[in-house]
């Protein structure tokens, strides 16, 4: 028996385990319940009692040798091979992947959406490639309005009259889509990207974000518009913010206004950002023009409404102290990583 054990010991030491299949063969031959080692343990009871301790010790050693060999082979095979024939060490800790984070524009838009949805506004979206008809005509732009000029608008394709396709220059065409698709009353905001062919600088870019608002109901007045903008501004820019409505003009609203808030960097004292005026312009707004309502099949004798359109990017730049609007569109990970939660 002793000789059998010794030769088995040698056999085990010489056994080459190069693959998973070798390892399995090794196990089956030596260490499973019906393997050679177990069989030898079975024979131990017929060994001369005087010899038993020594033979037992040898057998234990044999078992240990086999177990160690299996451990070693398992570790080695785990450092396995990938498709390119390269060894991969499966025991190495995994690589940390960069987890994405919300873009600063989306963070600010998210806040704006939350404020308006608490006031009962739903959310509507429209395409960035828009019909000339929706971007201009139906919004009561006269045919020769300067905003249509090639200088401002990226025209994409000219088609039949009214069917020209362009990159929308504002989110107001979404108003048209909402009014065509729904019956009043309606109350929505429309966030999105808009495009203008402007000289690119740290302050203006060919694409930026707007958030449009539209409310149509019976007896809506300019006072309702003011109250909504006030409430929004306090929540967005702080309780102490002051507002200034300046008369203005848009073809699709009458009367129209532009809204300034006290500069929330200097609190209205005057600084570089507000060009020492103490005020920052945040949006255009007004009462929806009767022509626009009629264009969409809504009777302006029965219904009235207001609309506003605010710029989003400037608020983002100020909020996060970013000094170049282009950084918002370049997708530079070094910039974006600073916004991981
Ligand atoms: N669409 C206008 C702009 O881009 C803003 C606006 C929207 C004004 C709604 C009045 C009403 O400047």
Keywords:
341 residues; alpha+beta; 2 domains; binds phenylalanine
Provide structural commentary.
- It is a single chain.
- A hairpin with a 7-residue loop joins strand 3 and strand 4.
- Helix 2 (20-31) packs antiparallel against helix 4 (52-78).
- The protein has a seven-stranded mixed β-sheet, sandwiched between helices.
- It is 36% helix and 20% strand.
- The protein has 341 residues and is an alpha+beta fold.
- The protein has two domains: 2-78; 104-339, Bira Bifunctional Protein, Domain 2 (BirA Bifunctional Protein, domain 2, 2-Layer Sandwich).
- The longest helix has 27 residues, at 52-78.
- The two termini are 69 Å apart.
- 30% of the residues are buried.
- It has eleven helices and ten strands.
- Bound molecules: phenylalanine.
- The site of phenylalanine (PHE) has 12 residues, from strand 8, strand 9 and strand 10.
Question: Summarize this, please?
Answer:
This protein is an alpha+beta fold. It has 11 helices and 10 strands. A 7-stranded mixed β-sheet has the order 1-5-6-10-9-8-7, sandwiched between helices.
